[in-house]
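Tutorial handout. Part one gives the primary structure; part two gives the three-dimensional structure as tokens.
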Amino acid sequence: MIDGNYTRSIPVKWAEIDTVIWLDLSFYLNISIGQLREHFRAISK
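Part two.
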């Protein structure tokens, strides 16, 4: 699994993969997930 924007490793990634799964989540869902993540990180520290 690869996520993020790692441009220096593009040749390595594209040479080995055979399937791409693109998750096109809505803006509001991404914001909600980010807020939940920050909330749980804040209470776990």
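Part three, for discussion. The two ends are 27 Å apart (CA to CA). Residues 7-44 form one domain.
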